[in-house]
Protein 1
Amino acid sequence: MIMQAIGKQTVKRLPVYLEYVKALPDQKTSISAAAIARALGLNEVVVRKDLACVSANGKPKIGYDRAELTKALEHLLGYNDLSHAVIVGAGRLGHALLEYQGFDRFGLDIIAAFDNDDALTDKKPGSKPIFPVSRLQELCQRLGVKVGIITVPATQAQSVCDQLVAAGILGIWNFAPVHLKVPETVIVQDENLAVSFAVLQSRLKQRLL
Amino acid sequence: MIMQAIGKQTVKRLPVYLEYVKALPDQKTSISAAAIARALGLNEVVVRKDLACVSANGKPKIGYDRAELTKALEHLLGYNDLSHAVIVGAGRLGHALLEYQGFDRFGLDIIAAFDNDDALTDKKPGSKPIFPVSRLQELCQRLGVKVGIITVPATQAQSVCDQLVAAGILGIWNFAPVHLKVPETVIVQDENLAVSFAVLQSRLKQRLL
DNA sequence: TAGATTGTTAATCGATTAACAATC
DNA sequence: TAGATTGTTAATCGATTAACAATC
């Protein structure tokens, strides 16, 4: 079997499958594509094709082995080897992400934040450290951090982005509503709440006619 | 011209265009599709086709009138008539969304939050009110709220969803990583951080081979 | 007129769905 | 064997890209 690049739409569904399979009642040791499709409101064939990419081998009449499927999904999504990341911008959103407990569930370990507001940079016991932005480059390089999360206002996002790139970051998760210019070697994943809300609005509007 | 339903991918790009056009330097009174495409890293034809949907009429050799384009985008995205919304779950994420100042920029007005944690439900001066979940139905109905935002843990999301539906909510913006079951009349828009991060990871991995 | 730009039609690509053979 | 389920091949749909005519 040739290692195919997995389609983007498939990648988006894999974490959803994993979440669902993990939440299954304990006694279930196997699960069928049809059951997953029903539970998640998807087409059966989509699920089977997606799971085929994961190379989880299903047994006719039984389905997929739960433990095996979980493992295969976690492996493919890279949930085993933790990605160390830093957040730039420790305002409300940045802080919420910094202290969110659920990220280790999907292989993301946010080790620190950076902010220029001195009021934020004192270390509180039990919480993760917040450093001044001036130390970003030094610390990222020293710790070998490869993922940066941007939660600063739009006006500062490009400058922060440039600093992250200079610090050797390879992937940027961008919550600021601007298009970031980066070298070809760096990947930007935009998370734009306005976009997401616009999709909801548009579907609501369409429904109302 | 027949009123076509706008494609989903187009809807996702419209807020990005709007954001970009708004941020243009003051002296610019017109903008070409080519310039937008270059700035946002998109194909020119995509931009022209998208803008055609918005029915902004561009002039050859000049481009689109900035003011007209802004207005048309805002109108189509429904940024003029505010959507009143409530948040259920006033933890870190819910609270960050509740107090986020940028939502009115895209027609979303979060008027209150609900949470069962009594420690959160005291009104602080200058901040938006947080009520106990028991009052959700009463208040939503009285205020005619049509959009609900779910930021509770996964285990409680379906129950909260059911209460929102019972209160007459038509659209749900769901930040909990579960598939919600709703009647056909209700629209759910999922915002799943695990999904977004998985896409980043997968693109990073691909890059590294 | 020449050149830049829009808007549209046709071709390509990727993702979804339908049909069906293979297997336990 | 019969039935349920997987996995794959072909058909359809939607979105992107390429080519080009229309217009100021």
Protein 2
Amino acid sequence: MGSSRCQWGEVKWTGDMEKLWYTYIGSKKKSDPLVISESEDSENDILGSTWEDESPKPTRGKKKIDFLEPKKVNKVRPMQGKMMGFGIPSLLLGRFNPVPSHMQGCPFFYFENVAGVPNNEWDTIKRHFNGVDPEFTDSKFFSATRRPRGYVHNLPVEDRSQLLCTPPMTIFEALPDTQKYWPSWDTREKLNCINTRKAPDSLCSLIRKIFRMYEGVDIPYYRQQEIVQVCKKWNLVWVGPGQAAPLEPFEIELLLGFERDHTRGCSSMTERYEALGNSFQVNTVAYHLSPLKSLYPEGITVLSLFSGIGGAEVALDKLGIHLKLVIAVEINEKLRGVLASWWKKSGQVGELKLRSDVRELTNDALSHLIDEVGRIDLVIGGSPCNNLSGNNRISRVGLCGIDSSLFFDFTRILTFVRQAMRDRGFL
DNA sequence: AAAAGCATGAGATGAAGA
DNA sequence: TCTTCATCTCATGCTTTT
């Protein structure tokens, strides 16, 4: 059942292919119309007549699929919403509680993590920041990719500004070469969230085969929907006729607001995808950090935790804020190298201090460090999200997870630094 | 040894409908 | 106001290939 004998040209649709296809779509349902469609004769499938006669029965618990042509075009979703609406925050001023007085002032702090966390962990995060509300922002308002994130900070929100160099805001603007291959029925304007893994080539060749199967005839609407579904799920773009492919690292770099080949220093493609998937979207962060420019005309001293490929540093630099001194803490040696090479390449004249592990920044170590540097103006970073991300099906256990628990080092370090600044009269 | 392929859903959100 | 339904998610661990 389901294994079809129908054949178009050289390509035969086998049971194995079908199984793989549905694995990639992510559907558990084996009673989807694909099976029905190819059980009997394939002629009707191609012509689509079967599907127009078939009245879609919205059975409970099953996924409803439109068999007919779409009646209306995609609606534009309103940009505002409730607490989790991910609007541009300046439009929502007054919605957030003010930062408690004892959390205001020097040093500023800026913490980032994924928006969709289990167990109401944002409440826990808020509690560990002494009641500072997270601000939820989606990078789709600053770039061509989605990236819904929560940011806890005590930065001023008045007089924010975006980078003068506005990034491409749509897929076609970001990837103009792909436009001529984009099927009309793939109506995406924004890419989904960049993650840490590349889509497998087997999926892309499967899509190629499907296009070859329907060579000369229209691809049925339900099949178009399936293809769009996998493209969304795996963030594929069209790089040839009927040919979808994952984003190249340099494309992700540009989408996230970095220079091309920013992560060239990584030791492998796998590592490069992983580092980029874990990174900030530079323009979004720059928007939040923009008020710092007028506050620190002489330059800024930054403690950057979980630095990764240096999204925070790049954002500050793009804002034109002079980096007097950056203490960057990053456990991956290659990524420290990426940051160091950017530091040199971008002509920084300030000092870059590299540390490897936030856990090694004990109170004693911090004390020494602060004696050495004097004053810290900004503590910034995003702690590991693997135990929080919805993509994790194995160990999505929350903040207590083996990696995500490093969050508590962020607040521990922040508390110590704030106290030290207070002791030195910098508050 | 290193890199890539492959199999693995729940849970939250928000729009639309009842 | 309540229900339904589509949509999306900074991934992990094992196996296979290079």
Protein 3
Amino acid sequence: MPELPEVETVCRSLRQTVVGRTITAVEVRLPKIVHRPEAEQFCQLLKQQNIADVARRGKYIIIKLEAKQALVVHLRMTGKLLYESCEIKPQKHTHVILSLDNGYDLRYDDTRQFGTMDLVPENQLQQLPGLNALGLEPLENSFTLEAFSNILKGKHQKAKSFLLDQRNIAGIGNIYADEILFQARIHPEDTTSLITAPEDVEGLWFAIRDRLCQAVDHGGSSIRDYVDSFGQAGRFQNYHKVYGRAGQPCITCGSMIESIKISGRSTCFCPNCQPRRVSAG
DNA sequence: AGTCAAACCTGGGCGC
DNA sequence: TGCGCCCAGGTTTGAC
């Protein structure tokens, strides 16, 4: 479910609610969600800590604590961070509960149990596996056309694989990869080495920012599970042009949207609007 | 270096 | 109603 726009929406909602609060109690109901430290120590270390800030890097949520520790949460497919009254009964898939000092809880809920939590000293964030290998942050000012061109240049991946590879650009998942490639009129199986024309490179760079920004503005996309920390669904699914539209006519040209598999991921595209590039010769 | 399949899990949707 | 199968927004690992 959650890609950059959804994770950003969760972070924004958490900033309104949990920053400044104190964690009064911690309950880990499914220990495997907590990677480090071991669950018992995790609870001990979090208790009585004050929440200083909430940040995002790629698809990671970083809850910063005043004692210079950071709680790093990855939602994977079905994870949710919910801000709920402690009087509401925890659900079947509520795995971690942080009780706050105002009668509310910050709860981690995850049907498929793929998500992770790590509590690390803030100065060791850069060593956390996964977080330490992330590429450019696409909504930051540092994501310039030049920086983007430089990473594109050295790669020989399929365009779709390039966008999904978190070491290149952080935060893009299956939905937005398809939407970005449609806007940039690039075939998902074209290798990045074919994307050399300046207008193509700039078009792709622009599409990345544009699709992600638009999605953030609409509170992300809710396909099945995603909600923000208030339990609110996103609205950007209403603006998807190719994702989930296989067999339906293209919004731009009326051709049938096709669905193929690229490294196991379903990929929707318009064969007319996104023609294959052919290498010279 | 790049690609792919499998693994981690539960639940929804489909065909029979 | 129920069973079996396939599918799902992510990441890591190991094999080719």
Protein 4
Amino acid sequence: MVKNGVIQTTFGKYFEKELIDDIIDSAIFVEFKEGDLLIDYNQYVSNIPLLIDGAIKILREDYDAGELLLYVLERGDSCAVTMSCCMGSTKSEIRAIAEKDGMVAMVPSTKMEEWIRKYQTWRVFVLDSYQNRFNELLSAVDNIAFKHMDERLMDYLEEFARINKSDVIQKTHQEIANELNTSRVVVSRLLKALENEGKISLGRNSITLNH
DNA sequence: ACATTAATTGTGT
DNA sequence: ACACAATTAATGT
């Protein structure tokens, strides 16, 4: 099957052959398209997702109505938050939405314990994954606590330019505002200011980074 | 080609 | 934050 090779190329650098084979045996491959809702709040998660390709946004809902982008997963990543859900069978605290078309390998959470005992590389992978998510979470907190909205916006734009490998970001001001948990008007004004500074160019449904 | 409508973006208070 | 104006895209006739 073509998909076997995909696992090998994406996770081969982490896992030994036996584990790769185990993954291929027990994983279900799921394709997704941009905008798909992959996990929602309070949903029970019984699979460990291994991201083969594409990008997934991880969002947290606030007490009243706001949403906030926590971080973005890319190929080779997994989501530690869902891993902890798997082990304790607790509800999801986050929402996952596809940012870019791609595919995940879904491993039944029942395999988790077995593999942790069996494979050194799996333990390392899980711990690294936790470490990485934790660091990203910290920088997300730093952003909110210490940075002004104009910096956060610029960081946001650069992040998505990197993910899409393009200087053109096709999003509405409203979408951006939702993910940064601010109002559309604020985003519009800051974008306008950035345009006047010559850092970006604005169009309908598109923002282009200049350099 | 033109008019109508909805969605997105811009600006003043 | 709110209201409204201006601009652009989409759709129907």
